Every structure is written in structure tokens, then in C-alpha cells.
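Ops channel
N.P.: pipeline sanity check, posting one input/output pair.
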């Protein structure tokens, strides 16, 4: 999978895959840059994307993510993968709606 950028709220978020020391991904708000580890399994990459997308959503909507906390953010956002993997019909509905 290769993605160089995506848009949200009329902002272009650049995406780079690279080796990251002890991290799966990191969003740099002031650079609008998302760096993702180049060594993740598909499942871990998906979980990381949901997690980092939440950071991006909070930042661009001026929500103080510190009030939510990193551990709660990780727990809640990564559960999307669990739900979607276990529910083919839900994935189908989401894909149909998006396309």
C-alpha cells in the first residue's frame, strides 16, 4: 500500500513511511505530516492509521486530545479494527456508503 497524502478539512496531510524508533506512527501537527513505521504488519498498520487519524481529527477540530489521553485514544481507536475484522456485513455497508 502506498499513500503519499490525503485531505481532511481542506488540509493536505503528507504521509511518509520510514523506520521509526519505538513508534508505530506519529503525527506532526504543525507540519501536517504523518509518519508511519515501514515495518508494520497490515493489521498493525490499520490500527495505527485509525489511531493517528484520531489525532489528526482532534487537532484540526481544535479538540484537546490531552484531556482524552494517549492510552484511551489507543484503546478506543484500535477497536475499529477488531469490529471491522469480525463483521463482514458492517465492512460491506461502510464500503458501499463510501463509494
Amino acid at each position: 500500500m502506498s499513500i503519499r497524502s490525503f485531505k481532511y478539512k481542506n488540509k493536505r496531510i503528507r504521509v511518509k513511511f520510514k523506520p521509526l524508533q519505538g513508534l508505530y506512527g506519529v503525527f506532526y501537527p504543525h507540519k501536517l505530516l504523518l509518519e508511519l513505521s515501514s515495518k508494520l504488519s497490515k493489521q498493525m498498520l490499520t490500527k495505527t492509521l485509525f489511531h493517528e487519524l484520531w489525532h489528526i481529527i482532534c487537532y484540526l477540530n481544535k479538540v484537546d486530545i490531552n484531556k482524552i489521553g494517549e492510552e484511551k485514544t489507543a484503546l478506543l481507536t484500535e477497536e475499529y479494527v477488531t469490529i471491522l475484522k469480525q463483521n463482514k456485513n458492517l465492512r460491506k455497508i461502510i464500503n458501499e456508503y463510501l463509494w
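N.P.: looks fine end to end. The chain has one domain: 5-98.
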